Every structure is written in structure tokens, then in C-alpha cells.
Amino acid sequence: MYRVSRRKQEAPGGVASDTQRAVFCSLHARHVHGPQRTQASLRALADRADRGIPANCSRPPPPGTMEGSVMENIFLLVLVTLLSALQNAFFAHKVEKECKTSNVKSSSFERVYCANRNCMDTYPTFMAIMWCAGICLSQAPAAFAGLMYLLVRQKYFVGYMGQVSQSTPGYLFGKRVIAFLFLMSVVGVINFLLAEYLAIDYKEYIQTITKAASALLLIP
Q1: Residues 123 and 176 sit within 8 Å (Cβ to Cβ)
Q2: Contact call for residues 21 and 57 (beta carbons, < 8 A)
Q3: What are 13-41's pLDDT values in tens digits?
Q4: Between 195 and which of 60, 136, 201, 206 could a Cys-Cys bridge form, CB atoms 3.0 to 4.6 Å apart?
């Protein structure tokens, strides 16, 4: 439950420890490989120091390791974002099709246009809090809530094309999903501040509760 921040665990003598490891590597190379290999090792260490690589005996991490770990933490959010882009294209296509098949001042065109405009007005807010919730707390519940929001937004758009009253359930359900994502974002930020400055981390417990609570979004 308690975790000391990584920044606080670092010793102030990090540079000295790297220097000690460099000296150990050079002595080990002299003992095993002789003076010629020792000079080559020292030149390699100097070259690594010029490039900003820590002077230790371990090999650098393989290329692409950091990018892969980052992608694992945001992959579901990326999928939901791409689906939302396709949905926006579908809405725009509906507006364009209605504009060509009917009069601009007709009631059907006004309903489609208003539905698309209402969906676009809330879209930036939805994307912002979904990414904040996924990065600050947990991506799986955030992506699930985002997928639910896309479904209710589709229901809202289709209902608005028929009658305005038919879009009310989708609108209310969308507000509940937005509130859930906003709460996730706030809790994630608060937990990060507690872990950073007070060395108290409840992230695992909060993630478990969030995953269980996200299933409640299925209740109409």
C-alpha cells in the first residue's frame, strides 16, 4: 500500500556510482584481456559518456523497448480514438447525404445537422477526459467507458434523426459516462500527488474498484 517515490529513492551519489562501475569495468578488463583491451574499453566508456549513456557494465536496453511499453499502456485508448474518428466520418456523411437529397431548410436536414453539431460539441471533452482517465489511472476501464460512450452517441444521433424525444436516453446515458471518466481522471491525479509527495499509493486498489465499477455502465 505504501510506496516510496522513485525520485526519492535515488541516492545523491548517482554519478559517483557510475564512476565506480566504470573503474571496476576497466580493472576487470585489464585483468582478463590485458592492457590493449583495457585501452579499448576505456575509449568505449568515453564514447558512451559523450553520448550520455551511463558508464556501467550492463548493455543498453534493446531498441524499441520503451516505445513498446508506452504502446501497451495506450493501445486500447488508440483503438477507441480511431473508432470515434470513423463515427465522426459517418455523421458527416449523413449530413452531406441529407443535404443532397432534401432541402436545406427542411426539418429532416435540420435534425441531422443539429444532431451532428451536438455530438461534435461534446467530442473534445470526451476525448480529453478519456485520455486523462486512461493515462492517470487505468486504460482498460477508460477505454471500455469510451466505447460505451460511442455506442450511446450513435443511439443519440439516430434517435435525433427520428424525433428529438427519442434522443433523450442516449443523452442522459452519455452524461453518466462522461461523469465516470471525469471521476477517474480526478482520482488518478489525486493518487499521483499522494504517491509523489506523501509516498502513499492506492493505485492498485483504485484500479480494482474502477474495473468493477465500469461494469455498472452496462445498466441502462
Answers
A1: no
A2: yes
A3: 444 455 555 545 555 544 444 444 445 55
A4: 201
Task: Determine phi and psi for 3, rounding to 5 degrees.
Answer: -140, 130
The alpha carbon of residue 56 and the mean position of all alpha carbons in its chain are separated, in whole angstroms, by 33
CA proximity to 202, closest of 192, 213, 217 = 192
**3-state DSSP call for residue 2?**
strand
- Which contiguous run of DSSP H or E holds residue 9? helix 6-9
The torsion of the CA quartet 24, 26, 31, 34, rounded to 10 degrees, works out to: 180
User: pLDDT tens-digit profile of 142-159?
Assistant: 999 999 999 999 989 988
CA dist 159 and 163 (Å) reads 6
Domains of the chain and any CATH numbers? 11-50 (no CATH), 65-218 (1.20.120.550)
Amino acid at 201: D
What are the pLDDT digits (tens) for 63-108? 555 566 788 889 999 999 999 999 999 999 988 888 877 766 677 7
The amino acid at 80: V
Euclidean distance between CA atoms 206 and 201, whole angstroms: 10
Question: What angle in degrees, to the nearest 10, is found between the helix axes of 35-50 and 14-33?
Answer: 150
116 vs 28 pLDDT, higher one: 116
